[in-house]
Design a protein that fits this description.
By secondary structure, the protein is of the alpha/beta class. It is 36% helix and 17% strand. The strands form five sheets. Strands 1, 2, 6, 7, 8, 9 and 16 form a seven-stranded mixed β-sheet that branches. The protein has a four-stranded antiparallel β-sheet with strand order 15-10-19-20, covered by helices on one side. A four-stranded antiparallel β-sheet has the order 11-14-13-12, with helices on one face. A hairpin with a 2-residue loop joins β7 and β8. The N and C termini lie far apart (61 Å). The protein binds flavin-adenine dinucleotide (FAD). Flavin-adenine dinucleotide binds next to α1, α4, β7, α5 and α12.
Length: 604
Amino acid sequence: MGEYQTHEHDVLVIGAGGAGLRAAIEAAAGGVSVGLVCKSLLGKAHTVMAEGGVAAALANVDDRDSWKVHFADTMRGGQYLNNWRMAELHAQEAPACVRELEAWGALFDRTHDGKILQRNFGGHKYPRLAHVGDRTGLEMIRTLQDHGIHQGIDVHMECTVVTLLKDGDRVVGAFGYDRERGRFRMFKAKAVVLATGGIGRAYKITSNSWEYTGDGHSLAYQAGADLVDMEFVQFHPTGMVWPPSVRGILVTEGVRGEGGILVNKEGKRFMFSDIPENYRSQTADNPEEGWRYVLGDKNARRPPELLTRDHVARCIVREVREGRGSPHGGVFLDIAWIKEKISGAPEHIKKKLPSMYHQFKQLADIDITTTPMEVGPTTHYIMGGVRVDGDTQMSTVPGLFAAGEVAGGLHGANRLGGNSLSDLLVFGRRAGMYAAKFAKENAAGKIHEDQIDSAAKSALSPFDRGPSGENPYQIQRDLQEMMQDLVGIVRREAEIKTAIDKLGGLKSRSEKVGVDGNREYNPGWNTAIDLNNLLTVSEAIARAAVERKESRGGHFREDFPSKSDEFSKFNILIRKGDDGAMQVVRQPIAELRADLKQIIEENK
Ligand SMILES: Cc1cc2nc3c(=O)[nH]c(=O)nc-3n(C[C@H](O)[C@H](O)[C@H](O)COP(=O)(O)OP(=O)(O)OC[C@H]3O[C@@H](n4cnc5c(N)ncnc54)[C@H](O)[C@@H]3O)c2cc1C
């Protein structure tokens, strides 16, 4: 049982999306040996699905843009709970990271004078998203991968890490299994970077693929790291709602950036009726001004469809609840209407949004150049994650770093679209750099065989129970339904507490989970292993959600519908107590530096 293959690297990166690849490239450039592990084939990470673009204040389309405006937008979007140091570094370093990607071969769409083209997106004051049609993530992964394979990085594909190994306080490696043959692998490393992405599969309706089961969040938590802001889950306002088999698949915000409007079944553009006070001065108050903004008129304000995602999602939920929704429980997103404004609209739409055109044509038999789409909210992103130092990305556990969606802090209570791809580049690079530094400054730690034995025993236990044990798929489905219903877009104390009780029951069932067959590619076994992570992140989300008795960003409490001053002063941390139980801690937010405060004031 305890047999395993051993690999040794100075830096081990877990996850090969944008953050992991960028971290691996930087660590290798630092002169250390690097291993990169991923659950699926290289190039198939979540990042490849990213559509709309990468946010960076290049100021190519509007020269009023700067890192300061990007910083202020990110802080406003995050409702000031952000780790402001991360928001500062992110806004300052994103333009150079995008130019670097271009130098490595990324072919972005172009302005007429040959610069990188930038598009409008929700919550960004100026057009800021560098993009490649609506396939930006594909170009990003392709470029990072092409660059990365020349750096001498050892890639371990189709391998799932199930535990981090520790020597005293410090992380010294990881243990996992290859998904194809089910054999164990031990990775010895001086530093480990987590870049495992999100948690979307904890919910029933999600834009996330099968890989996003919160593994990195859970690995870090079990290793003793703090998680921060776990109550903030982003429900993207526009996922497909019909047919049922494709429910949740993302409809990029780029559709609204290109002029798409949201209407209810009465044909009303309902977003004009609910513009939050803190965005009023930046938002158009009539359709004509909104359209001028789309065309690039610098004197026009952005249309209300481009308000932040949390707000737009809640407005859609309200329309549906009050009986003004579309036939399948969403609202209409209409880009075809722009034919009233420009000639050659169908060709323009196909050029700007090729994936959306094909997605609706193939999956729903709808031509978006002539017909409105039906859309509704879908679980998309988690703002919360491993608590890291803003400069180095090291977690509270020595030797353990985190970057990308698995790390928390940058986005506060709500992430602006496009700020994830830039996050991956900026903080992937920093995590790789500081992990390499840590590896150079620290000798390898000791591997403790008892940790490996216990992880192997636990991983294989579903085979001991066999087919008479609990069905892992059924537990996963029950969990997803429960999280969707009780800890979803609109939350209430009694329901969240019920969810916490039910999580206890699901955990007991998961301890009795059984699988049939053998270790060679066995999806039931893989699901049984993923369950532990899904249950851990779900509990973290629910416990943080009970604690935050206010509504802010991605966290809406019907019983506390307003923002509260008291809750603006701290982040909520989740950590494992000495007794093994989950602890909830209020962490005061560090006072904002005076120069950054001024930037926010100047950009209000
Ligand atoms: C449809 C869609 C469109 C999006 N569009 C945009 C956009 O336009 N702009 C934007 O900024 N953001 C967008 N996002 C969000 C953005 O794509 C993600 O937040 C981002 O790609 C996450 O990158 P990452 O590197 O952190 O992780 P991922 O790209 O999610 O990669 C995670 C990696 O970790 C590996 N992994 C996970 N668990 C384990 C484990 N236990 N062991 C080993 N490996 C593991 C996976 O196999 C994978 O390789 C979009 C998201 C979706 C779903």
